[in-house]
Amino acid sequence: MVAAVISGIERKRLLTIDGGEILLYVIHPYLRSWPSASSCFIACMLMLAGCAGFNPIPLEQLPAGLSIEAQSHDDLKVNVAIPSNKDAEAIYGVNLAAKQIQPVWLEVSNQGQHPLWFLPSGLDQDYYSPGESAFAFHSKSNDVLNDAIDQHFRELQFNNLIAPGTSQAGFVLTNMEDGVKVVDIDLLSHEAVYRLTFFQKVPGFKGDYQHVDLDSLYSPQEMIEPEDEQSLRSLLESLPCCAANGKGKATGDPLNIVLVGDRTDIFTALLRRNWHATERLWLRSLARTATSFFGGSRYRYSPVSPLYLYSRKQDISLQKSRASIHERNHMRLWFSPLRFRGKEVWVGQISRDIGVKFTLKSQTISTHKIDPDVDDARAALVEDLVYSQSLTGYGAVEGVGNATFSNPRVNLVGDPYYTDGLRVALFFESRPHSIADIHVFEDWIVPRRSVRGYSEDYLGSAEYQSALDRIDTLLRPKAKTQASAGVSVSAVLTSSEENTAVLGIDPLEKGVQAVWLEVTNNTERQIGLMKTGVDPDYFSSLELAYANHKPFSNKENALLDQHLQAMDFRGPILPGATVSGFVFINATQQTQGRALDIDLVGNRWAQSFSFMLPLSGMPIDNFRKEMETLYAERELTFIEDEAVLHDALQQLPCCVSLEKGDLQGEPLNIVLIGDFDDITTGFGRRGYRNTPTQDRYAYGRRQDSEGVRQGQWVASQPHTIRLWQTPLVYRGKSVWLAQTSNRKGGRFVQTDLTGEAKSLDPDVDEARRN
After folding, report:
1. E strand or H helix that includes residue 563
2. Is residue 95 helix, strand or coil?
3. Which of 70, 346, 580, 724 would suit a FRET pair with 289, their CA atoms being 20 to 30 Å apart?
4. In 3-state terms, what secondary structure has residue 77?
5. How many whole angstroms separate alpha carbon 689 and alpha carbon 755?
């Protein structure tokens, strides 16, 4: 089937420039190389099934018109295309879009000397396996039809690996994206890692960015090209402080960000970090907004109201949606006439929405209420893009104008805000770039978050001093501490009782986990804590406060705002200084503890710490001690040589037992080598949470540790992982044997309380690959 897709694509050379070719790809409406055995199988199955609800087109009638983008790297060539929802339904025979599934077509040609392995998790870490997605369209009573659907989905799937001198093509089933989609293709070989990024437009989306032709906005005479960084800095400082209304007579939100780079690098970095282009106001977007508003659901493409710069409304709006339409980070960007060293310069505004209010100052009678601490939203963007792999440096300039907590400014809908008056410039290149290589422009201004949302008098209040005393007595003694590279970090996950005692509220009631951190910097550099490394969707202190406001209690609400702002962790951490405070992250359902990553960043410097922290009353330390004493030293086998390790691994048990007997169960199909904390934090980074699972047995005991993968906003295929420590030790590291599997039907099936289904997906290798 995939062979038909490949051979049915005709490559037509349109133009050759400086040795490079522009190619047109046309998928023929009639493909002649459909494998006869597969086609006969599907045809027979469909006749038996009566084709009820499943009507894929024969591949020789595959619709034309897929827009294919090609990239090459040495002996590697990759083609990518995203079919429209209509074409996807024709190809698969079912309405994938109704299940929020979006197929991405991929063709990889490997003319190198080594085999290549494609990592679908790099494209979408929550991608759908063929078995899982096919199950979503199963009939309850027609097994013949179900077999036909399963076979068809398997035939269409991209298959690893790509041997030297061969090509592979097929589809990867990803989560639905509207507008534009970043397609990251990661390929591994024995010698290298290849990373290619495609910026694909999704058919059928009406984005607000489509109202302007960027390439014809400015004449050559209007372009301004500063020659050095100091000239660029002066030009950025001379920009207006704020966006304005349509008539230009009233100022609104501050213009507090600047993005410098090639258009593709900038926007793929944003999309990679789950920023989405917004829809323009039209019938569908209004209906989706209303549904999200009244239902409290999430709408990733919700329209953003217009603000004006350069005598026009924003050229593009983007948002990073959160749990509901009421909460989001959003930005507006304008394409400027500036160019710096051949790179485009975009000027923008970013703020954090923390709720919805009614106002006559908006044409729609309602609008979002912004977090008045706009510098927090600015800092969150910088931290977020640190992890995009495309950010190479950043620095700040004047130009916005200072506004204090006691004397704030207001935007066009009357929301107050305060700021240190800086705008941050971010510089982009093509990925990948390590966070340890990011250049902080120290000869510019380094933002220090000096504006705080409370009065100085509050620091001397009884409420604040009492909270500090309770931190000393309740939190600091139970903190876990790590130190490295001149920095020490202490961390605690707080319980409901501790939250109430220190914060005056319990964030857990709102699905928020409070983390108390203390960082001591004994280096000679200024460093900063990456809150987005702890949780990409962390809550600002005022966002949490607003969610806990009480009606008709303005004085009490104001005190809560000040208290949570004073308790907030606010950097940077200067040389020789210690900073402590809270970070508010999304709570998860767990039983033993939570993996926590702490990333600290300085100028071309980074240091990471990984914690496994106990929840309230959970004996993580006792569990760790049990692992350390599980085997007597005489029972351990110490190995230094890889060949010896290879032979020893082949002697390990093949499968789990379903009980403490000989009844054989699922295969033990994973080996992990490392310290317990490193392994569990690694799984934690990929969405696994310590969750009770059904008991399985190896080495005469139930699993030593267990977890299930969970999605934050998008549901994940619920992979189950069970681990047993073996008596092997390789170069000082413990060797763990694990069993991983998926439930049949994945996220499309009802489960019991443990998150497991009665039936196991028979393709256990798919779970291992993922």
Report:
1. helix 554-567
2. coil
3. 346
4. strand
5. 12
The continuous run of DSSP H or E covering 201 comes out as: strand 193-201
**Span between the terminal Cα atoms of the chain, in Å:** 24
Using alpha carbons only, what angle is made at residue 78 by residues 73 and 80, rounded to the nearest 5 degrees?
A: 140
> Cα–Cα distances in Å, from 701 out to 247, 655, 696?
73, 13, 8
Contact between 480 and 490 (Cβ < 8 Å): yes
Q: Which of 426, 416, 421 minimizes the C-alpha distance to 450?
A: 421
Q: What is the pLDDT of residues 73-109, one digit of tens each?
A: 889 999 999 998 999 999 999 999 999 999 999 999 9
Q: Which of 365, 355, 206, 326 is nearest to 278 (CA)?
A: 206
Residue with tokens 């620095």: 395
Radius of gyration of the chain (CA): 28
576: nearest Cα among 518, 524, 517? 524
pLDDT in tens, 641-653: 999 999 999 999 9
Beta strands in 242-382 (DSSP E): 242-244, 251-254, 257-261, 276-277, 308-309, 312-313, 316-321, 328-340, 343-358, 366-370
Pairing of strands 664-667, 655-657: antiparallel
Q: What does DSSP say about strands 720-730 and 391-397: parallel, antiparallel, or unpaired? A: unpaired
Distance CA 587, CA 598 (A): 17
Q: How far apart are CA 395 and CA 302, in angstroms?
A: 30
Quick one: which of 566, 592, 603, 593 has its CA closest to 581? Answer: 566
Q: For all residues of the chain together, what is the average pLDDT? A: 83
Angle, helices 85-92 vs 143-156, to 10°: value is 120
* C-alpha count within 13 angstroms, C-beta hemisphere, residue 389: 11
- Angstrom distances, CA of residue 749 to CA of 144, 379, 718, 744: 20, 40, 11, 8
Sequence-ordered list of residues with C-beta below 8 angstroms from that of 140, at least 6 positions apart, any chain: none
Here the tokens at position 336 are: 């400027």
pLDDT at 617 (0 to 100): 52
Classify residue 356 as exposed, middle or buried by CB count within 10 Å of its CB (0-12, 13-18, 19+): middle
DSSP secondary structure of 683-747: HHHTTEE-------EETTEE-SEEEEE--SSSPPP--EEEEEEEEEEETTEEEEEEEEE-BTTGG
| Contact of 499 with 567, CB cutoff 8 Å | no
pLDDT per residue as tens digits for the range 438-493? 999 988 987 776 678 888 899 999 999 999 999 999 999 999 999 999 999 999 99
DSSP 601-639: EETTEEEEEEEEEEPTT--HHHHHHHHHTSS-GGG-EEE
Question: What is the 8-class DSSP label of residue 760?
Answer: B
Longest dimension (CA), the chain: 82
3-state secondary structure 481-501: EEEECCEEEEEEECCHHHHHH
Helix/strand number for the chain, H first, E second: 19, 41
> How buried is 190 (Cβ within 10 angstroms: 0-12 exposed, 13-18 middle, 19+ buried)?
exposed
d(CA 48, CA 142): 10
pTM of the model: 0.79
Total residues belonging to the chain: 770
Write out the H or E segment, with its range, that includes residue 150.
helix 143-156
Tokens 């990759």 belong to which residue? 78
Query: What is the C-alpha to C-alpha distance for residues 373 and 565, in angstroms, rounded to an integer?
Result: 10
Distances (CA, A) of 115 to 167, 233, 614: 11, 48, 43
Confidence of residue 325 (pLDDT cuts 50, 70, 90): very low
Residue 35: DSSP 8-state: -
